[in-house]
């Protein structure tokens, strides 16, 4: 039985509903200049008022109501869990938008293939260049992340294979998708008490096999499979810090994950927190 079939077989044995997935991407932390600092208040609302806009093409955009506060704004692609909609996660998606990101959420409960998520990137790319669009000239197409929950976490891994996507955060991801194709940093998130995307079978093994990229594994203490719904629960702050560093070059977020004084490495909210050799080689803060 090959690697992918083995993962699928183990997932099906647990009754996990999933879809299809491949990859990841390398990231530059030099940054979109001019985006307001938030100190280290990653879980608190960001400095931007937020608006929600339907794309008319199968997505909901969560974005700063007045674009331009970061000059151009990085993109975060979002995939929902099976049968869910962006409204299931609206608190989390609005939170990310308040920190300066344009969040493009696929309006589907079947985002595991990653196709709908990448179609969202195609949409904002076209709008960035279209005269008369409210996104005209405001999208930072050089700084793109992918994230999602459960089936959408699998979709996030798929987006990471696309050269336009710099980094991914799969949250309690389903089993499909080839993590060996990832080409940038990955932050794998698991829940200690998750009986659907079980850490032991579906999340930690893929972190362990992602040695070709900087990879971090965070297992949230006491978290079940519905933890990310609503406002993101205990995942909200860490996901925000990861994207603030990797997509906005926010140096205050570096030490959350990297360097010898990594603040997450022994934090009590994690039942398990690990960094692979490439992640351990990323310099810490000054």
Summarize this entry quickly:
The chain has 286 residues and is of the alpha/beta class. It is built from eight helices and nine strands. The N terminus is likely disordered.
What does the main sheet amount to? 9 strands, mixed
Q: What gyration radius follows from the Cα positions, in whole Å? A: 17 Å
CATH top level class name: Alpha Beta
Order of adjacent strands in the largest pleated sheet: 1-2-4-3-5-6-7-8-9
- Please name the CATH topology: Rossmann fold
Distance between the termini: 47 Å
Following the backbone from N to C, one meets helices and strands in this order, namely: HEEEHEHEHEEHEHHEH
Please identify which CATH superfamily we are dealing with.
Answer: Alpha/Beta hydrolase fold, catalytic domain
How much β-strand is present in the residues? 15-25%
- Overall SS class: alpha/beta
Number of helices: 8
> pLDDT below 50 for ≥5 consecutive residues: which ranges?
1-32
Query: Any idea what the CATH architecture is?
Result: 3-Layer(aba) Sandwich
Helix content: 25-40%
The overall pLDDT average reads: 90
What characteristic shape results from the CA principal axes? Answer: globular
- Number of structural units classed as domains: 1
How many β-strand runs? Answer: 9
Pfam family, one: PETase
InterPro entries: AB_hydrolase_fold, PET_hydrolase/cutinase-like
Domain PET hydrolase/cutinase-like: 36-250
Protein name: PET hydrolase/cutinase-like domain-containing protein
């Amino acid at each position: 039985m090959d690697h992918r079939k083995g993962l699928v077989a183990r997932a099906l044995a647990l009754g996990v509903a999933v879809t299809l997935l491949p990859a990841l991407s390398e990231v530059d932390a030099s940054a979109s200049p001019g985006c307001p600092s938030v100190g280290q208040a990653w879980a608190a609302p960001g400095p931007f008022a937020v608006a929600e806009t339907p794309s008319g093409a199968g997505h909901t955009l969560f974005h700063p109501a007045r674009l331009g506060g970061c000059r151009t704004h990085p993109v975060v692609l979002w995939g929902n869990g099976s049968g869910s909609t962006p409204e299931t996660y609206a608190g989390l998606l609005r939170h990310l938008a308040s920190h300066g990101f344009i969040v493009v959420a696929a309006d589907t409960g079947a985002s595991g293939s990653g196709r709908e998520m990448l179609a969202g990137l195609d949409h904002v790319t076209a709008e960035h260049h279209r005269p008369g669009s409210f996104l005209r000239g405001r999208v930072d197409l050089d700084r793109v992340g992918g994230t999602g929950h459960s089936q959408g976490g699998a979709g996030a891994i798929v987006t990471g294979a696309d050269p336009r996507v710099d980094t991914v955060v799969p949250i309690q991801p389903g089993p499909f998708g080839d993590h060996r194709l990832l080409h940038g940093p990955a932050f794998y998130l698991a829940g200690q008490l998750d009986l659907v995307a079980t850490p032991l079978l579906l999340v930690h093994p893929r972190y362990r096999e992602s040695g070709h990229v900087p990879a971090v594994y965070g297992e949230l203490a006491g978290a079940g499979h519905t933890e990310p719904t609503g406002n993101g629960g205990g995942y909200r702050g860490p996901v925000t810090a990861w994207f603030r560093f990797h997509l906005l070059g926010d140096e205050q977020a570096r030490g959350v994950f990297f360097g010898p004084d990594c603040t997450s490495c022994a934090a009590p909210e994690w039942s398990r927190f690990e960094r692979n050799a490439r992640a351990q080689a990323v310099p810490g803060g000054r």
